Amino acid sequence: MFVYPHFDPVAVAIGPVQVRWYGLMYLLGFLAAWWLARYRSRRPGSTWTAAQVDDLIFYCAIGVILGGRLGWMLIYGTERLFADPLSAFRIWEGGMSFHGGLAGVAIALVLFARSRGKRIADAFDFTAPLPAIGFGTGRIGNFINGELWGKETDVPWAFVVDGVARHPSQLYEALLEGLVLFVIVWWYTARPHPRLAATGLFLVCYGVFRFAVEFVRIPDENLDYLAFGWVTMGQVLSTPMIIAGIWMLVVAYRRNEPSGNYTRFS
Questions:
Q1: Conformational region of residue 209, where left means phi above 0, alpha means psi within -120 to 50, and beta covers everything else
Q2: What angle do CA 22, 131, 161 make, to 5 degrees?
Q3: What is the 3-state secondary structure (H, E, C) of 131-198?
Q4: How far is CA 193 from each of CA 157, 185, 203, 261, rounded to the nearest angstrom?
Q5: Nearest-angstrom CA–CA distance, 144 and 22
Q6: 38-42, 88-92, 237-241, 244-248: range with lowest mean pLDDT
Q7: pLDDT band at 76; cut points 50, 70, 90
Q8: What separation, in Å, do the N-terminal and C-terminal C-alpha atoms of the chain show?
Q9: Helix 98-116 vs helix 50-75: crossing angle, to nearest 10
Q10: What is d(CA 201, CA 211) in angstroms, rounded to the nearest whole number?
Q11: Fewer CB in 10 Å around end: N or C, the chain?
Q12: 220: closest CA among 79, 98, 81?
């Protein structure tokens, strides 16, 4: 077992200005998404330009920050919001909802696609592999902040936190929702597939990974388990994602519409 070292959440402090690791992890995720999207846009047959990628990442960054924070405050942090309304703006302290961020990004992609004359489904498909690195770095940020721990356990890779050995559920999510999700969707989108297929695969994989990790992750105190002594809000929110993802995959391969992200489809 490992003893959790209780990291300093502040990476750099210059006078009253503090740069926190949590914020840096999000910045790293955005930069990785931008670089990966630029790389994909340079491939032969791509219908995306570098300028479009830059605008896409800007739209998505705004969407994930606003949606993620608002979603967390409304779903998980209502007590904090009522006690201190200004806490909604202190993103660096932690508290971002993936499902809220997903909704924010979805809205941002719709607005982006309409403003650039692209099919909304094509924008979703092009973006599908990009968030995974950010999911991974964000969970590492949770680990540094010492939040979102798992249940008590005696597994050899557990971390002892304040005298209690716990599952490092943040690291499980960093691995599954970050690295594994990225590898799967990036590999899948390396060649053209029917429109909406990449989006469907992303939703299924993320939903399954998140649903699984919730079995060892401690639910938020203000919510606790919602039913049967094990159902969590994360599982409730992930289930529609899995269903929607399966539906998209079935529809995509039945219709077999060419992706608009390539000038050639094979």
A1: alpha
A2: 35
A3: HHHHHHHHHHHHHHHCCCCECECCCCCCEEECCEEECCHHHHHHHHHHHHHHHHHHHHCCCCCCCCHH
A4: 39, 12, 16, 10
A5: 8
A6: 88-92
A7: low
A8: 50
A9: 150
A10: 15
A11: C
A12: 79
CA neighbor of 63 nearest in space, from 39, 99, 22: 99
Strand partners, 18: 13
3-state secondary structure of 227: strand
121-173 pLDDT, tens digit per residue, is 999 999 999 999 989 998 999 999 898 899 999 999 999 998 999 999 999 99
Q: How far apart are CA 10 and CA 21, in angstroms?
A: 6
Per-residue pLDDT tens over the stretch 100-123: 888 889 999 999 999 999 999 999
Q: Could you tell me which residues come within 8 angstroms of residue 129 by beta carbon, excluding any fewer than 6 positions away?
A: 36, 182, 185, 186, 188, 189, 198, 202
The Cα diameter of the chain in Å comes to 59
Distances 83 to 27, 217, 221 between C-alpha atoms, Å: 29, 26, 16
